[in-house]
Design a protein that fits this description.
about 170 residues, alpha+beta, 6-stranded antiparallel β-sheet, 5-stranded mixed β-sheet, 11 strands, about 30% strand
Length: about 170
Amino acid sequence: MAKLKIFLPSGKEIIHDLSEQTTTIGRLAENTLQIEDDSVSSSHAEIFAEEDRFFVRDLGSTNGTFINGEKIEKAILQEGDKLCFGSVVTLFGSPIAQEEIPTEETPDLPTNPTFESCRPDNFVSSSPIKRDTNENGLGKTSLLIAALVGTVAFAGAIYKILEISKILETQ
């Protein structure tokens, strides 16, 4: 049975059996394989079996699907292929074939790889929750000051409207 070994940015490794005809991959819980990472789209890609072969197809993801460093739309999967969904690295293969080949002869199939990032140069996080990339916190402070100024201006406008309506009532 084919498997997908997933290396999460947190350092955790997961092995997923590709036991279904089609395995959908993405951040949403409705996917067969849910990967909770900002670089993975809600519905990122799918792996499917067809005529004793496995294929991967990108589902219009923001950050792309890559096989061995090449961006793909649809491709045939080969034993030992390095797949990237956004910046999440995975290895495709069957554990039996990997066990039969000594690891020293296959440096591209390490048990604990240190892959370079698959994140493309034009990476865009599609997460609705944005990370604070401003280390000194000026973005949040500016937003807080703007909200405070807006609130004071709104209160001042309401005060003036009430003051004018009182003047008009007394006339």
